[in-house]
Amino acid sequence: MRKSNYGFTEILKNIYNLFKTKLLFPNARLIRFPIIIRGKKYINFGNNLTTGYNCRIDVLGKHYSKILTFNNNINMGDNVRISCCEKINIGSNVLIGSRVLIIDNSHGTYDGNIQDNPFTSPNSRKLSTKEININDNVWIGEGVVVQKGCSIGKGSIIAANSVVTSDIPSQVIAGGIPAKILKIFDEELNEWRRV
Fold it and tell me: Is the predicted pLDDT of residue 1 greater than 80, yes or no?
């Protein structure tokens, strides 16, 4: 069984944060403040969400429904940033390390027929967006970046400091820049195999 080993000051902070959580986010497990949330009406927070300190969750633009979905039992570390313009779905039982960036948008388009050029100020370029799906039981390590248009399959692990630029299948360990499959879970042997 895991033990938290919180010190006295941290216990007091958690009690304060728990009280504030139940007042502002009754379905959450524990929100550690400060937290920045923009576009709250477009976010489904699910049940039992836990965040670290200094997280920032943004939904940009005007929408007709909830476009950022946290399913159940999600745990986020400190300094996580999630930026959503089109759609981000985070499955149940997902563990997100600290300093993670999940972003479904970028300033400009750099492939295809209509591309932005370096003579236009980046902040003036139209936002380019593409949906992100993070499935159940995914573990996203410390310092990971998940870019627009990516899907991470059920039960996969993304190694620390990786950059996810394309889809990651289920039941793999992926890492690197860009993230590539390093291991696959072998259900017959009940173990992770190197690729």
Answer: no
Q: pLDDT by residue (tens digit) across 62-102? A: 999 999 999 999 999 999 999 999 999 999 999 999 999 99
Distance linking the first and last C-alpha atoms of the chain: 32
Cα separation, 109 vs 51, in Å, equals 32
pLDDT at 3: 78
Domains of the chain: 34-194 (2.160.10.10)
pTM: 0.95
Reduced to 3 DSSP states, what percent helix, strand and coil does the chain have, rounded to the nearest 5?
10, 35, 55
E strands in 4-62? 35-38, 43-44, 55-59
31 pLDDT exceeds 90?
Answer: yes
Query: Hunting for tokens 């959450």 — which residue is that?
Result: 28
DSSP track, 132-152: EEE-TT-EE-TT-EE-TT-EE
Find, among 153, 147, 150, 104, the residue nearest to 127 by Cα.
104
- Picking from 138, 141, 163, 162, the residue whose alpha carbon sits closest to that of residue 152 is 138
Q: What are phi and psi of 71, to 5 degrees?
A: -80, -150
* Confidence (pLDDT) at 57: 98
